[in-house]
Amino acid sequence: MKRTRMAEKGQRSLTFTAYAVTILFTVFSLVPVLWMVSSAFKSDKDIDAYPPKWIPQIPQSIRVTLDYSGLGPMERADYEKDAMEATWFPWMKNIRENIGEVRITGIRDGKRIFQAFTASSSFRAGQPSIVPSTLFTDQLMDRKLPMIREKKLSKFTWYGDGGGDVSDRKGVAESELSSRFADFYGSSEIVQGKVATIEEKQAWIRMFDSFISVNKIAMNAAGPLGFTKYFINSAIVTLSSVAIQLLLGGLAGYTLAHLIPNKKVAVLFGSCSSWRRL
Questions:
Q1: Do 103 and 201 fall within a single domain?
Q2: What's the whole-number mean pLDDT along residues 234-247?
Q3: pTM
Q4: Mind telling me which InterPro entries this protein's record contains (predicted)?
Q5: Pair (158, 96) in one structural domain
Q6: What is the average pLDDT value for the chain, to the nearest integer?
Q7: For the segment 57-111, what is each residue's pLDDT rounded down to a tens digit?
């Protein structure tokens, strides 16, 4: 009777060890996958950070209000050009930062006259052709503005005289990124509007913009399917390889567990087989 109880205890201990080893190997095997998924949501700065960061930061929404009061007469196209310069140029200068979107609001004599919006997916897709370097000039935007319109990289909404009243508050958010945007506007003579406010808010929805930008870039090379064309090919090869490895590994572990007479070794091979199936 005692031998039976001891054998049962030994079997339970061996089973517990086998499951513990299986779980441990599973966790270790998932670490590279988790790191890959985490890195897909990181900015360039976070990827190169040391020590490494596991949790990606939330992209920031930069909201700038430019005041054109006191300036000479300007046409709609002049405001649009100024809004694009106020968006693309400082963003390029801070390209490694985790910027999710930039919103520019133009005001004149206390009224809103336009709003411009650019998402990070559009910026990353258009950056190589719109602002390939940090050499910023008015002539550069004269050439690139038609491309921005054609590819719909930025959205410009014109209110003109029909815009609503706006508050007269002023100030720059107390953050490093907002300060960098303010420094650019203050030191550059390209942007005509004067900074009234710069706000910074979290933009959770921009966490997925890296995937959208990859799809936009791929559409230029692969047609309407875009990133899907490359993803399907890779998915078929990867899933087929994983399925074959799981099948062969499970069969090998099952066969060895039944061929070896030693029960302890058999349980160990059985646990390895379970791990391969996971």
A1: yes
A2: 73
A3: 0.72
A4: BP-dep_ABC_trans_perm, MetI-like_sf
A5: yes
A6: 80
A7: 889 999 999 999 989 889 999 999 999 999 999 999 999 888 999 999 999 988 9
Note the pLDDT of residue 275.
Answer: 43
Please indicate, yes or no, whether residues 143 and 76 belong to a single structural domain of this protein.
Answer: yes
Is 186 domain-assigned?
yes
Residue 54 lies in a domain: no
Q: Are residues 137 and 69 both part of a single domain?
A: yes
Please report the DSSP string for the chain in residue order.
Answer: -HHHHHHHHHHHHHHHHHHHHHHHHHHHHHHHHHHHHHHHT--HHHHT-SS--SSPPPPEEEEEEEE-TT-----HHHHHHHHHHHHHHHHHHTTTS-EEEEEEEEEETTEEEEEEEEEHHHHHHHHHHH-SSS---HHHHHHHHHHHHHHT-SEEEE-GGGPPB-----EE-SSHHHHHHHHHHHH-SS--SEEEEEEEEE-GGGGGHHHHHHHHHHHHHH-TTTHHHHHHHHHHHHHHHHHHHHHHHHHHHHHHHHH---HHHHHHHHHHHHHHH-
Q: Is residue 72 located within the same domain as residue 176?
A: yes
User: Could you tell me the residue range of the domain that residue 10 belongs to?
Assistant: 2-40+225-277
Query: Residue 194 phi/psi, 5° resolution?
Result: -95, 140
Neighbours of 195 (CB within 10 A): 19
Query: Comparing C-alpha atoms, which of 159, 140, 3 is closest to residue 81?
Result: 140
Rounded Cα distance, 6 and 205, in Å: 58
Claim to verify: residue 184 and residue 250 sit in the same structural domain? no
36 and 82 part of one domain: no
